[in-house]
Automatic annotation (TrEMBL):
Keywords: Acyltransferase, Transferase. Coiled coil: none annotated. Transmembrane segments: none annotated. The keyword Transferase applies. PANTHER family: TRNA N6-ADENOSINE THREONYLCARBAMOYLTRANSFERASE, TRNA THREONYLCARBAMOYLADENOSINE BIOSYNTHESIS PROTEIN TSAB. The keyword Acyltransferase applies. InterPro entries: ATPase_NBD (IPR043129), Gcp-like_dom (IPR000905), T6A_TsaB (IPR022496). Its EC number is 2.3.1.234. This is tRNA (Adenosine(37)-N6)-threonylcarbamoyltransferase complex dimerization subunit type 1 TsaB. SUPFAM superfamilies: Actin-like ATPase domain.
C-alpha cells in the first residue's frame, strides 16, 4: 500500500513518477533549463490526476546525482520543500542507479548481473559507477565518480566490464575501451526505472530527514540560483 512520489532532473530529461495502491504513473519530458519552473506544477498535477495528496505519501524520492548541477539543485530544493511542508521522509536515489535499473529492464533474464553505468558529464569527462543486481536488490560495487576518458579506460583495462549502459556510449564512442562488453546506450523510460529503484530503497528503509537530503556533487559546488530558491519556497508553501 505504498504511496511514493519520485522525480529526477539530473539529465536533460525531467522524469516524474508516482506509486499508489492503484498502480504506477511514470512520465519523461524535456527538462534542462525549463525544469526549475515546470517541475513543481507537473508534480502537483500528477498527484491531482491520481486523486492523491502530499499528506497521503509515505515518502518523497529524488535523483540526488551525480548529474547536471542546476538539475540536481532543482530536484533537491523541491524535494526538501515538499518534505518539510508535509513532514515526510526523503529517499535520495543515485542517478546512475536509475540508468542501471532501466538497462536491466531492456535485457534478457540471463544478462550479466554486474554492469557499469557511464554517463556523459560534459567537459570531456564521464560520471561512472558499477552495480550488481542480486536477490531482488542492487548493491554498489564502485561508487559514482568523475573520470576522464583515459582514467575510466585504465580502470576497465584492469577489470574489463561485461556490460555498460549510459549516455557516454554515444557521446564518446570508440574512445571508450569497452572490449567485449555488451552495451545499452539509450534509456527506455527513466521515470519507470526511477520509481522502481525508489520503491526498493524505501522498502529497505533508506530514507533521510529532509534536512539531510542533499545533492551528490562530483564537481565544485556553486551557489543556488534565485530560481531554485523560489522553487523550494513554492514547494514548501504548497505542502503546508
Amino acid at each position: 500500500m505504498t504511496r511514493l512520489l519520485a522525480f529526477d532532473t539530473s539529465t536533460d530529461a525531467m522524469s516524474l513518477a508516482l506509486l499508489t495502491p492503484q498502480g504506477r504513473r511514470a512520465r519523461d519530458e524535456a527538462g534542462g533549463a525549463k525544469a526549475s519552473a515546470r517541475l513543481l506544477p507537473e508534480l502537483l498535477a500528477m498527484l491531482a490526476d491520481a486523486g492523491s495528496t502530499l499528506q497521503e505519501l509515505d515518502a518523497i524520492a529524488f535523483g540526488c546525482g551525480p548529474g547536471a548541477f542546476t538539475g540536481l539543485r532543482t530536484a533537491c530544493s523541491v524535494a526538501q520543500g515538499l518534505a518539510f511542508g508535509a513532514s515526510k521522509p526523503v529517499v535520495p536515489v543515485d542517478s546512475l542507479l536509475i540508468v542501471a535499473q532501466d538497462a536491466r529492464t531492456q535485457l534478457a533474464d540471463d544478462a550479466p548481473a554486474e554492469l557499469w553505468v557511464a554517463m556523459d558529464a560534459r567537459m570531456d569527462e564521464v560520471y561512472a559507477g558499477a552495480y550488481r543486481w542480486e536477490s531482488g536488490r542492487w548493491t554498489v560495487l564502485s561508487a559514482p565518480a568523475l573520470y576522464s576518458v583515459e582514467a575510466l579506460n585504465a580502470a576497465w583495462q584492469s577489470a574489463p566490464p561485461t556490460l555498460v549502459a549510459g549516455s557516454a556510449l554515444d557521446a564518446f564512442g570508440e574512445r571508450l575501451a569497452l572490449g567485449a562488453a555488451a552495451t545499452v546506450p539509450r534509456e527506455r523510460s527513466r521515470a519507470a526505472a526511477l520509481i522502481e529503484v525508489a520503491a526498493q530503497l524505501l522498502a529497505e528503509g533508506r530514507t533521510v530527514d529532509a534536512t539531510h537530503a542533499l545533492p551528490v556533487y562530483l564537481r565544485d559546488k556553486v551557489a543556488q540560483t534565485t530560481q531554485e530558491r523560489e522553487a523550494a519556497r513554492a514547494a514548501k508553501e504548497v505542502a503546508t
